[in-house]
């Protein structure tokens, strides 16, 4: 049996009926058995579901938001299918399930678990629509629920993979099927030991592709994006970007660690461990070579710029005139780990610990509440974290013009600055 190929299509590649038709053309001469196709939610559906959750939590009416989201998906179906096609009833049914779940109680205490029971609907609806359309175009695929095989712990919103169970499930449930048909499934979602839905962190569909590729012993993973490959900066923010024809696993992992959005940060490690190459290609120009990420790439020294928005700078200052010790750092990190907050930048002084974290609902309040008795705490919100890998020293100042710099640090190969617009 030939080795499995894994293709992943993100939200932009299924954002409307034209995009779904383009995806179909990409697959027309590429689809084969032994292929797994992973799709994300359509367009900004996950953001819309998060907005619904925010309104529900605030006890505000969200019915219009839900109706708008349903209408968005039905409009895509109208652009793909003739009236009376079964997909319309399927979409209506999925939104009825969503509305029933939204009737349940939501509080700060159960927010993470409730979140995971809701936001996966984006992928479930998207994958149903895409699978039905492919089949209508004589590209036969089998729709499968990723939660059947992607097994995780119960760390809701940031679930950790149970690799042994996932590999076992993939081998027993999907491998026999792949000998005869391609499978179309969802990114981002899994299930815990009790069968409750979990998610792998925002933009986690890339990670799903890597999980399935590793578990199925795939020959490669291809992520289809709206950019020509991996660039040295986000072209929506910076001009004069350069595409990498190839990258080593380590370089790619470093870029994603600091926040490069083209690939989810957890994607590289499982592929590198078993030497599965990752291709990043453009769904707007599918014949172009894109970028190949693999173990034999030649290292480069091209400056790479990563910008993370909606950052919070928090400083913890000891109050008893002692110096910062390991115990203080341990206490802060203990609380960060409990809240599932990742540190994007850390700086120590004699009497304070400064960290930069992503803005997340409730999390800052909970962090302050737990540590306010031990530290004097100050924070700034709405900041940007600029990271430059392999910086050209003479070029750094250009990225700081017009900004106030609240914190910066540099090493041999990395420059970071927390900035806000003046």
TrEMBL record:
What does it catalyze?
Answer: L-aspartate + ATP = 4-phospho-L-aspartate + ADP
Output this protein's name.
Aspartokinase
Tagged with keyword ATP-binding: yes
Superkingdom to which the source organism belongs: Bacteria
Enzyme Commission number(s) of this protein: 2.7.2.4
InterPro entries documented for this protein: AceGlu_kinase-like_sf, Asp/Glu/Uridylate_kinase, Asp_kinase, AsparK_Bifunc_asparK/hSer_DH
Q: Give, as in the UniProt entry, the pathway in which the protein acts.
A: Amino-acid biosynthesis; L-threonine biosynthesis; L-threonine from L-aspartate: step 1/5; Amino-acid biosynthesis; L-methionine biosynthesis via de novo pathway; L-homoserine from L-aspartate: step 1/3; Amino-acid biosynthesis; L-lysine biosynthesis via DAP pathway; (S)-tetrahydrodipicolinate from L-aspartate: step 1/4
What are this entry's molecular-function GO terms? aspartate kinase activity
UniProt keyword list? Amino-acid biosynthesis, ATP-binding, Kinase, Nucleotide-binding, Transferase
Origin species, per record, is Algoriphagus aestuariicola
Q: Which family does it belong to?
A: Belongs to the aspartokinase family.
Domain (Aspartate/glutamate/uridylate kinase) spans 3-282
Which PANTHER family does this UniProt record tie to the protein?
ASPARTATE KINASE (PTHR21499), ASPARTOKINASE (PTHR21499:SF59)
Which sequence ranges form a coiled-coil region, renumbered to this chain?
A: none
Thylakoid is among the record's keywords: no
């Amino acid at each position: 049996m030939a080795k499995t190929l894994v293709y992943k299509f993100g939200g932009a590649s299924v954002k409307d009926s034209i995009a779904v038709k383009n995806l179909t053309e990409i697959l027309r001469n590429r689809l084969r058995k032994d292929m797994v196709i992973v799709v994300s939610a359509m367009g900004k559906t996950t953001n819309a579901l998060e907005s619904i959750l925010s309104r529900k939590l605030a006890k505000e009416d969200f019915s219009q938001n839900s109706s708008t989201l349903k209408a968005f998906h039905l409009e895509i179906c109208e652009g793909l299918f003739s009236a009376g096609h079964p997909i319309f009833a399927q979409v209506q049914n999925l939104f009825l399930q969503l509305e029933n779940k939204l009737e349940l109680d939501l509080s700060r205490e159960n927010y993470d678990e409730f979140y995971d029971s809701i936001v996966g609907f984006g992928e479930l609806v998207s994958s149903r629509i895409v699978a039905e359309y492919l089949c209508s175009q004589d590209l036969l695929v089998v729709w499968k629920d990723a939660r059947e095989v992607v097994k995780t712990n119960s760390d809701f919103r940031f679930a950790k993979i149970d690799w042994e169970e996932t590999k076992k499930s993939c081998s027993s449930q999907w491998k026999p099927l792949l000998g005869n048909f391609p499978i179309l499934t969802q990114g981002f979602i899994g299930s815990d030991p009790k069968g409750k839905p979990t998610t792998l962190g925002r933009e986690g569909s890339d990670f799903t592709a890597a999980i399935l590729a590793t578990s199925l012993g795939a020959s490669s993973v291809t992520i289809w994006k709206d950019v020509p490959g991996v660039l040295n900066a986000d072209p929506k923010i910076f001009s004069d970007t350069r595409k990498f024809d190839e990258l080593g696993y380590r370089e790619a992992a470093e870029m994603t660690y600091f926040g490069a959005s083209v690939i989810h940060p957890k994607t590289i490690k499982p592929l590198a461990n078993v030497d599965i190459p990752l291709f990043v290609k453009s769904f707007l120009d599918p014949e172009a070579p894109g970028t190949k990420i693999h173990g034999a790439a030649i290292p480069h020294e091209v400056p790479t710029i990563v910008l993370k928005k909606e950052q919070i700078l928090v400083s913890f200052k000891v109050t008893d005139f002692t110096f910062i010790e390991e115990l203080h750092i341990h206490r802060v990190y203990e609380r960060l780990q409990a809240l599932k907050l990742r540190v994007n930048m850390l700086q120590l002084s004699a009497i304070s610990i400064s960290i930069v974290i992503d803005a997340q609902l409730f999390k800052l309040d909970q962090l302050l509440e737990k540590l306010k008795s031990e530290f004097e705490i100050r924070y700034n919100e709405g900041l940007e974290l600029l990271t430059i890998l392999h910086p050209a020293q003479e070029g750094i100042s250009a990225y700081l013009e017009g900004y106030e710099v609240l914190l910066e640090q540099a090493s041999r190969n990395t420059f970071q600055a927390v900035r806000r617009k003046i």
